[in-house]
């Protein structure tokens, strides 16, 4: 058989699990295209943003992963255009040809058309976003120290978080705990440090996709930490450090953290009829883009309605992406051997979120629980998928020491110099 060229765009959970299951398979020559030269673990971005762990704890270089894998290659670049009639893609760093194209590009932050929010709010989708947020939060504290009046200081200390899903809940809990455990010790100039964290969500409950047990526990723990929660309310605009809410309230804050929604990344070259709700790509039961037999879509970008348990599409979760990636790799092997393909069915292993130190919520297929045991399971599950043994060891050690001491030591303001050196 002739070797098949497989181009994978996106090295997240879906793309990487697909590649892992075709590595060392001589029939396929695989090229991964990504705008980053590393894989990272999105569920822990909020801990990078709050200076709890280092970016290197949740990142691993693709080329390091691909060492001694004869059929794997890496291409650093951004996808610009899909030319399905020519079986090529154009990137900003070159043109690649393919026999099979796998689109695992994921999503980007959705600002719902609010330009002021897009310009000034702080997202948390990438390592770069998280480092930018970390710098912003630390700089806001320094500005609060130098503030000349109480009103100005209040503005720098106030944080509004838009979005009550797992990311919003987790970052709210982390910031509230850091305010209690660290701010008093490190910023003695501020005499009246109190919680100024506002968590805003348009839904009637936090963690809308989880059980009522998890929702009530999240609200209880965050309220106890001093987080001001407003439900059934949305952010409508953000101008001149004023957060305008749908109920007419305005909150003065120098920080608006945006975790309120995502939208699929644009894919130029696919027929318009294949792009559906949320800019996701319509696929069949084998994750094949409809009407395009050599192009597949995986993970958050894929919209599949053939799974009987999920007729309105799968949730945009890591487990869906992982399972789709593994199955597509197996299906390509089956296809090349002339065997029937296997339809995708999502096996829900549950979902969880950490709220604060030693407190988490977990929804497993048959039971929901909260507290310390849920926190331990969260800890275990979030270490296993991290790429590289060294990363797992570093992350476990850093977590242990930070939780014991209540005082992680990563609060560094690191800002790359812009432009040429002038002196």
Tell me the β content: 15-25%
Low-confidence stretches: none
| CATH architectural grouping of the domain at 115-259 | 3-Layer(bba) Sandwich
Mean of all residue-level pLDDT scores: 90
How many helix segments? 11
Distance between the termini: 62 Å
Spatial order of strands in the largest sheet: 5-2-1-9-22
Using only CA atoms, what is the Rg? 23 Å
CATH class type of the domain at 115-259: Alpha Beta
CATH topology of the domain at 115-259: FAD/NAD(P)-binding domain
Number of strands: 26
**Main beta-sheet strand count, sense and barrel state:** 5 strands, parallel
Structural class by SSE content = alpha/beta
The amount of helix comes to: 25-40%
Shape: globular
Describe the structure.
- Among the domains are: 4-35 and 77-109 and 263-336, FAD/NAD(P)-binding domain; 115-259, FAD/NAD(P)-binding domain (3-Layer(bba) Sandwich), CATH 3.50.50.100.
- The strands form 8 sheets. The protein has a 5-stranded parallel beta sheet with strand order 5-2-1-9-22, with no helix packed on it. The chain has a 5-stranded parallel beta sheet with strand order 11-18-12-13-14. It has a 3-stranded antiparallel beta sheet with strand order 6-7-8, with no helix packed on it.
- Strand 25 (359-363) and strand 26 (368-371) form a beta hairpin.
- Helix 1 packs parallel to helix 9 (318-336) and helix 5 runs antiparallel to helix 6 (150-157).
- The chain is α/β, with parallel strands linked by helices and 423 residues long.
- The chain has helices spanning 13-20, 45-49, 62-65, 115-120, 127-146, 150-157, 166-186, 212-224, 318-336, 372-383, 389-405, and strands spanning 4-9, 28-34, 38-40, 59-61, 72-76, 79-83, 88-91, 94-97, 100-103, 107-109, 122-123, 159-162, 197-201, 228-231, 235-239, 242-245, 250-252, 255-258, 262-264, 275-276, 280-283, 295-297, 302-304, 351-356, 359-363, 368-371.
- The chain starts with a strand and ends in an 18-residue tail after the last helix.
